[in-house]
Amino acid sequence: MSHSSSDSEEDPIVRLSDILTVAAQYEKGKIKPNKTTPRHTANATFLTRVSLFQGDITAMEVDSIVNAANRSLLGGGGVDGAIHSAGLTEFSFFIGCLLKSSGTATTRRMQVSFTHPTFPRLIRAKGETLGGCDTGGAKITKAYKLPSKHIIHAVGPVYSRSDVENRAKQLASCYKTSLDIAVENGLKHIAFPSISTGIYGYPIVDATHIALETVHQFCESEHGGKLDRIIFVVWSNKDKEVYETLIPEYFPLEEESTTNEPAEQQPVSEELSQLPDAPEEAS
C-alpha cells in the first residue's frame, strides 16, 4: 500500500531493526545501571532479547502485539464504534485502550484496518469469534491489515486497593499467558503495552515491576529462548522513565570480569626494601 510523503512521515511503520535491545540501550546510555541491588543475576543473553520502545504499538511490524482488552473482548466507542459500523457484530476488538494516546494517526490506521471491506469476510471464513475471556487470560487472532502478524488480546485486571494480591496475580497471568500463546503459535516477537495502567487504574510502578518480573521468569524458563524479542512499549515520557529506572533491577548489566587480569603490583615500602635477604640454606 502506497503512502503520501506526509502520511509516511506522520505514520511510519516501526520495524524490528528500528527497536533497540536493552543491551544496545545500555551501550548508548539510554538505560543506566542504578545503585539498587539487582533482583536477578546478570545475563547478557537476556539483554539482547528484551527491548523498551516509546511509540505507537499498532505501527509495529512484528509477529505479535498485545491488546489490553476487556472480558467481553467487545468495546463501546472510538475505534470500536467504527468496527461495529462496518457490520462486525460477531467479532470486535477492544482496541480503544490499546494505547493511552488518542492520536489521529493511530485511530486512522485502526479504522482502515478493521473497516476494510475484506475484514468481515476474513473473520467469518476463519471462524474467529472469540467469545470473551477471563481476567488474566488471553486469546490470539490475526492482525489483518495491521503491520503485525497477530494480535494477542489480554484481559487485565481493574486495580483495587482492597484486593492487591489477587489483582497482581491476574496481571502477571496476562503477561505469562500472552508469552505462552506466542510460543505455542511459533511466533518470534511480542510487544506489550502497559497492561491495566490506563482506564483500569493500575499504578504504573507496581504494574512495571510485575511485567518485568514475569518476563524475566519466562526468559529463565525452558521456553525462554523460543522468542527472539520481547518488547515493552510505552507512550508517555513518565512511563518510559519508570521502565528505564526499573529495568536494571530485573535485567542488570553484566559487570566487567577481572578474574583473568593480573593483580596490580603493590609498591614496596622503603622500610621493607632495606630488610636483608633471607639466608641461604646450607647444602
TrEMBL record:
Chain positions covered by the region annotation Disordered: 253-283
Matches recorded under SMART domains: A1pp
Residue ranges of domain Macro in the record: 37-251
InterPro entries associated with the record: Macro_dom, Macro_dom-like
Entry-linked CDD domains: Macro_OAADPr_deacetylase (cd02908)
Polar residues bias (residue ranges): 259-272
Protein name: Macro domain-containing protein
Lineage: Eukaryota, Fungi, Dikarya, Basidiomycota, Agaricomycotina
